[in-house]
Write the structure tokens for this entry.
Amino acid sequence: AQKVTQAQTEISVVEKEDVTLDCVYETRDTTYYLFWYKQPPSGELVFLIRRNSFDEQNEISGRYSWNFQKSTSSFNFTITASQVVDSAVYFCALSEWGFTEANSKLTFGKGITLSVRP
Amino acid sequence: SAVISQKPSRDICQRGTSLTIQCQVDSQVTMMFWYRQQPGQSLTLIATANQGSEATYESGFVIDKFPISRPNLTFSTLTVSNMSPEDSSIYLCSVRDRGTYGYTFGSGTRLTVV
């Protein structure tokens, strides 16, 4: 069975600080996808990134960066120079994307509430 | 990627009544997923809906409480039946994008049961 653990529940930082959100996953599959979503107070889910299990390259997108480490089953997310608009709940998720659609569901971690103070 | 229109965006309902939530996708998709997010919690999958077959429910969710319809490849409904205050949650539908292996979510239905 697949599982996603986000051990941090709430993080509070001051604007312009860097912050890292941790994600650890469990899966028996060799082919899987990892995701990060942002959920602002309005409630919608905003897609941030998708990473497949064969691509361990780190990725940077503006102030956002992701560190994928298969050896430790981790997919951590760093926000550099945080801003008040980054305040939201952030979810890490896992999909075991096998050859059938039956196992293509997304499993979410519990989420991390990030508060960025001015 | 697909665009999903989800209705209603929010509702306040009396206990014992039922609410039907609709999701319309702008392209044909094989599978649609329905999630529940209780206050302050993560998203939990309720069921997976394939067109032309009965939905597959996750442990803890039953068809009598959450009947799902999937009449075609672009539309699905989820009904929350005989509601109680414990059903107060955000309900979201989602589809998988075969081209990108990503998932698109509807904007959610914020349900309050009084």
User: Anything to note?
Assistant: Residues 69 and 77 of chain B are 5 Å apart (CA to CA). The longest strand of chain B covers residues 89-97. Chain B touches chain A at residues 30-31, 33, 41-45, 48, 56, 90, 92, 94, 96, 100-105, 107-108, 110 (CB under 8 Å).
